[in-house]
User: Which sequence fits this backbone?
């Protein structure tokens, strides 16, 4: 048997933790045999939960820690008080080579700062970026940056193109990464000077990792013609959250329309299976998890408010990233 | 009878024109009696269409012009060849006081440049902004800028707050304009320096036009807690188009889910009325039309691809803007 993938798990981050985290490990383990979990958190809280799961004691090790970082902590105060918290220790676990990847559903800013304090940047990369999965008609996009860097220069955007492509290739090995720059017009003329220069450089660059497909406008993100969308952290964050808000608005309008009459309710029951399929396809838990790129170890952020199913999906992302040799792919391709 | 509102209509812009434009006038006229249309376009094409409508010859005047601006024209070439085009002449019509408001479904960039060439800026306003209606849970948002200015300073964003509020008040006179700045975090700490300074100034400013409600993130745009969303033209354009793309993606997924089985199709028929209600509420034609703010006359841009119903809705926006004294409201409140 090959060595198992070792996932460092911050069990204390996000809503309803450690319960959801431990339940997620149980779900994940069922379909992924060759995994070992290094769990960081309060043993007194974790033990009664984990003992009721189907997890075997050979599947995990619990590292007890009393302290954890709260969602209300500022990144700076989190970093200061951090060293004996579940988040800090789980990151130290990949730093020391005891784990291959780390996941937390805790405070994003704190995770970002503590990861940067403990881990090295990949050589030649100036800034880390936060990336995530975003569905399109044909599969999945990787979108980055989603908020790590408010302002980005040409070099950053080029780095993001390589890192996003390496991530796409790690997760979906049979697909060719196709990069597009998020912009307000498809003509070469629009956009600011940074975007124009990046366009020029990417057009001229020859690389074997991805195909550069030019600009993309917001309304085409989900068309499926490209699968790696590159932008600065401010724009990316606004775009992602606006899409989230729009999706929520539409599904709540749909729900109220479909239940506004007895006939409506009845036919919705008849149509239950189809509506469920629709709901399932758009389930945000399927795309849960942001990936911090640019550090020399993989750091995964689960959404704080997701449940055990969402967290389990992020655990699958962890596994694919290690199996897909994400960090090596970035190092090999970065220029 | 009070003087009719005179709308200058560029009949040649956008898809399927002048047909859709003339049909839209017919639809609009039915519910809006005190209106007169100054129509600019090719009389040979317009006459056979308009003669088949219920419009009376006292409802309009056609100003014949052979030339028109194409969607493929660059703003600069449009401005050069412009003087005898339907777009240029319809803008001249408000410049000369022959009309009260102008509407076109043509080339946005060209409309912007020709309007700026012909019309004066409102005193104390540095940059015009493109604004539009965007539905929320309780009614309608005004969002601006949507692409007129890629980069904006603090003064611009403050001006946009006033102009957007004046527009909201003109369209929905019984509601209080509530302004929020689009940002990537609700805490005061996030965002770039321009946004932070604008936040500070708006917090300190006392005005009777709007209430300043702080920052808003993309996922809350449609919550209905605020109704005027202010941002730079790059971010606003990306946000609007991303929302559009997300809405299209979800409704097409829904459609395919609901028709993927015979039972699904049957129950969708049963639920026809509710689904129609849903569709109607989200119909983009209801929100058709961008309003160029900052010039001393009102300029309305209809979506090029909308149909007669969408164009007719934009004609209603024209009417409300004149009745609501938009320009006077801006002039009175701008600081």
Assistant:
């Amino acid at each position: 048997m090959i060595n198992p993938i070792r996932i460092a798990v911050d069990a204390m981050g996000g809503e309803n933790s450690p319960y959801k985290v431990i339940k997620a490990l149980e779900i994940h383990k069922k379909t992924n045999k060759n995994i070992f979990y290094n769990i960081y958190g309060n043993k007194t809280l974790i033990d009664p939960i984990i003992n009721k799961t189907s997890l075997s004691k050979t599947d995990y090790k619990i590292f007890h820690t009393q302290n954890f970082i709260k969602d209300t902590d500022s990144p700076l105060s989190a970093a200061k008080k951090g060293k004996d918290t579940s988040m800090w220790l789980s990151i130290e676990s990949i730093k020391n080579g005891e784990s291959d990847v780390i996941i937390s559903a805790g405070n994003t800013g704190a995770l970002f700062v503590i990861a940067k304090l403990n881990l090295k940047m990949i050589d030649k990369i100036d800034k880390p970026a936060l990336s995530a999965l975003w569905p399109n008609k044909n599969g999945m996009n990787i979108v980055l940056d989603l908020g790590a860097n408010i302002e980005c220069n040409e070099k950053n955007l080029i780095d993001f193109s390589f890192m996003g492509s390496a991530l796409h290739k790690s997760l979906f090995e049979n697909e060719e990464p196709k990069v597009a720059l998020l912009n307000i017009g498809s003509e070469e003329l629009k956009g600011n000077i940074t975007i124009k220069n990046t366009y020029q450089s990417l057009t001229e660059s020859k690389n074997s990792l991805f195909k550069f497909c030019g600009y993309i406008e917001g309304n085409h993100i989900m068309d499926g013609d490209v699968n790696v969308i590159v932008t600065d952290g401010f724009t990316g964050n606004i775009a992602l959250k606006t899409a989230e808000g729009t999706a929520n608005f539409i599904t709540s309008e749909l729900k109220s329309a479909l239940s506004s009459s007895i006939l409506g309710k009845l036919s919705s029951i008849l149509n239950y299976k189809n509506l469920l399929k629709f709901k399932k396809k758009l389930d945000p838990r399927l795309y849960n998890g942001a990936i911090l790129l640019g550090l020399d170890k993989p750091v995964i952020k689960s959404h704080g408010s997701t449940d055990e199913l969402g967290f389990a999906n992020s655990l699958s992302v962890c596994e694919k990233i290690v199996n897909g040799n994400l960090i090596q792919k970035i190092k090999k391709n970065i220029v």
User: Anything to note?
Assistant: The radius of gyration of chain B is 21 Å. The longest strand of chain B covers residues 129-136. The mean pLDDT of chain B is 90. Chain B has two domains: 1-125+294-335, 133-287.
